[in-house]
Predict the 3D structure of the following.
Amino acid sequence: MLDYDCGSGVASRALLPYVSEIRGINVSDGMVEQYNKSSRNQGVPDSQMHANRGDLTAPSPIKACFPSLLYSKNFLGLISPLHHIDVPELLMRRLVERLRERGAVVILDWTPKDQHQHQHQAQLNGHESHEASHTVIHEGFNKEQMYSILRQAGCNEVDYLVLNEPSKVPASIGGEKQLFFARGRKEASK
């Protein structure tokens, strides 16, 4: 499995019992350090769970950051990075390149929310904007957008599922947000 924008490894550790190996990628040296330290502290060998620093949205990703271990994966997981990415289509294309034929990508992110409503809600609640608000580029993605992004990246069998209940998040970033799961399967070579 490849965990892009892996953070400190919370999602990777939760999925570790279900996969043979996990490779994480994060743009932050600090997050990569936390990810690797946490897995070592739990006695997980680097051969089973390890992160590298890298940015697949860079104009020319440095090959040294992406060893061959980061290719031919059966599964890719993305937990809420897309709304921070300027061109999500580029990221998805580069991620799907790392999948084996018929491999799957699963994304968890936010559905769109009216920007004015978000700012108004924060003001009504007497809250300043969240410290990471400036990094949010997209207010979420609807079904049509995710279908387009995944299909452009080379996936078929695309699905989009909105969770039944909104998630409670700090008022400074919206108070309640609606999560979705999107899934795509890499097309087989012709």
